[in-house]
Write a sequence for this structure.
């Protein structure tokens, strides 16, 4: 079976999902390279956002020869110098322009690969062709010299709406039955990583249901958080519960939801439950202070309150087996956010056509729904099928 990540690799820039701004910047850099002061470009952003695929797609679209090297393949300055001098100093066989791609440049070690980055900088300065590098973490101190010589192009996490659209297209092309709710959940849980979403989709390719997505994409993470909850709720002392959240692969904001959902199942005493929620509330106060003041030292207090604090609230350990479950509030919050996002898109088109502010147009969308859904009006506003469908919903 051909992996979906390979089968649906973008063949041109139009097939790159959710990166219009980054693609435009990259294309402009390549086409006008000789006029540019930065002699290279670094594409940076999380894994699975289309950095490498974009370079391949544009190289094919612009008819460039692409020479790629992964930084892990070149582990010393001599090898990098040999490759770059050969690639940058020779004309293409058919006199076509060339693109040089150095993938995952942030994987170069500052110690084991000492001298590699200075050699790349030297090669860039005399290059006749565009040098494109990719990095997941642009803030690595070892990349400072490269950043000073390069244009920085951000590839952010792929928006959920774009992810859902891409997953839906694959399902329809493969003939895979799916629930719309399941694709939305898969996109949300993949956190902007289309590659991971495609891998999960292929695993579920028999039928993509919401229950299957929830059990698959969060399986490893769920085991981790449920184990931590058990340690907090069942520990006989606060000291044992204190490190419970140290290694949990779940965002701190989501831990609040997990605790809120499962506290009433575990603490049956009204007094213990009240004390536990008091600690949860105090932790939430510190979370608010972090957002307002950016004083991240408060994370220590939050962790202590959520672990040792809640653990110490109980009068005695609940000896019954409790099955911890993830709250559905996150999904509902995401669905509400997507609803507002669609409304904002429509408001933007109304504002452009009627010369209104986006704020005023947004206020009028609900009132104008019956009119906007009419075929002639929708065509004039250039509304898509999804936007028209949204307008027709009550």
């Amino acid at each position: 079976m051909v992996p979906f990540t390979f089968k649906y690799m973008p063949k041109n820039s139009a097939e790159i999902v959710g990166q219009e701004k980054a693609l435009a910047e990259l294309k402009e850099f390549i086409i006008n390279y000789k006029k540019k002061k930065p002699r290279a470009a670094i594409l940076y952003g999380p894994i699975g956002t289309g950095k490498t695929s974009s370079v391949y797609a544009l190289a094919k679209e612009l008819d460039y020869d692409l020479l790629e090297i992964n930084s892990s393949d070149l582990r010393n300055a001599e090898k990098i110098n040999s490759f770059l001098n050969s690639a940058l100093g020779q004309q293409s066989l058919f006199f076509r322009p060339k693109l040089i791609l150095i993938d995952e440049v942030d994987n170069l070690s500052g110690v084991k690969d000492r001298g590699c980055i200075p050699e790349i900088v030297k090669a860039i300065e005399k290059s006749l062709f565009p040098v494109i590098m990719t990095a997941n973490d642009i803030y690595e101190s070892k990349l400072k010299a490269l950043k000073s010589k390069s244009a920085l192009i951000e590839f952010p996490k792929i928006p959920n709406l774009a992810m859902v659209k891409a997953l839906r297209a694959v399902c329809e092309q493969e003939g895979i039955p799916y629930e719309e709710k399941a694709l939305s959940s898969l996109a949300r849980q993949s956190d902007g990583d289309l590659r991971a979403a495609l891998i999960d989709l292929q695993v579920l390719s028999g039928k993509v249901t919401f229950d299957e997505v929830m059990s698959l994409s969060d399986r490893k993470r769920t085991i981790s958080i449920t184990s931590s909850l058990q340690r907090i709720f069942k520990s006989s002392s606060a000291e044992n519960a204190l490190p419970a959240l140290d290694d949990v692969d779940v965002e701190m904001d989501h831990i609040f939801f997990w605790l809120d959902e499962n506290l009433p199942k575990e603490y049956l005493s009204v007094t213990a439950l009240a004390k536990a929620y008091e600690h949860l509330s105090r932790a939430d106060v510190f979370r608010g202070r972090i957002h307002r003041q950016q004083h991240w030292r408060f994370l220590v207090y939050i962790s202590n309150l959520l672990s040792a604090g809640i653990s110490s609230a109980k009068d005695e350990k609940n000896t019954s087996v409790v099955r911890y479950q993830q709250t559905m509030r996150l999904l509902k919050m995401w669905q509400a956010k997507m609803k507002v996002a669609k409304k904002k898109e429509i408001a933007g088109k109304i504002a452009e056509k009627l010369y209104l502010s986006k704020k005023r147009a947004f206020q009028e969308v609900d009132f104008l729904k019956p009119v906007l859904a009419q075929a002639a009006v929708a065509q004039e506003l250039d509304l898509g099928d999804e936007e028209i469908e949204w307008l027709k919903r009550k």
